Amino acid sequence: MKNLHILPKFSDRWSYLYLEHGKLDKEDSGLVLHIKDGDIPVPIDQLGLLMLGPGTSLSHRAMQALAENNCLVCWTGEQGVRMYAHSTGGTHFSRRLLNQARMFCDDGLRLKVIRRLYAKRFEYELSEDLTIEQIRGLEGQRVRNTYKLISDSVGIPWNGRCYDQDDWDNADPVNRALSAANSCLYGICHAAILSAGYSPAIGFIHTGKMLSFVYDIADLYKTEITIPLAFTVASEGSVETERKARLKCRDVFHQSKLMERILPDIAEVLDARDDLGECPGEFEGRIVTLADRAEVGRVPWEPQRQGEGRTLENGGKKKPEGDGGPDLE
User: 0.90 exceeded by the pTM?
Assistant: First the structure.
């Protein structure tokens, strides 16, 4: 793992790259996508997110290089609309994650985070007397008004967020463009969250999903970025709607300076304004953690003796070889 001090900051990276129908491999000059028409070089150290669509494979060396350069890899459906799996983040630093978990577990702190998440979406200051239910009602009205205003200005009718995933091609162009654009937005927010050491699963407004916090943060930008973008793309016709939406996302993300805004916005809603950047990688392992604690006099560090650290079955006797496989940490 490279130290993040020698990598480009998340705010300085390209937003994302979508690939399909090719094999990604590592060569001396970097990553190369092999397709039937030739080879395409991939800028490995400048990417924040790499989306791999259908028909894409990658070598072990390529995945290792992407991990070393702190690039999130997502395996997606056609046109990048659905995300099936993703890699892990590029930091082993847990301080931000622990703070995020602390704020989630404290009802009072969690309520404050929810208020800040909602407050950032409005152009005016919300009254402190408003309940969360009242704020949610205002937010719902704001989003509905956004859809109506943009629909009227572009001249594209809006019939609601409605589509059948099993009959995707029959969805109207706006819904298809919106799904494609939101997928890109989710991927970028996910990459930012992981790059700084937060958990994408510990959400505050959204809960119960492995990407709950991704949805919390992405919602800050939808009315500004993906909703207008989707209507604009839909007004240009229904041919290659998803592809047009992805390409336009890259331009709009750059114009809106999205990559520069996400980490400071996360720090603001979590009340950590003095902690805006990315953390360099730390050494992995229990030894470093216990040694750190020993320095402040809490947990003296001793080398772990064989057999310690787990409860053995059979009255403390070691299992016979071959029973249950190797004992892995």
Answer: no
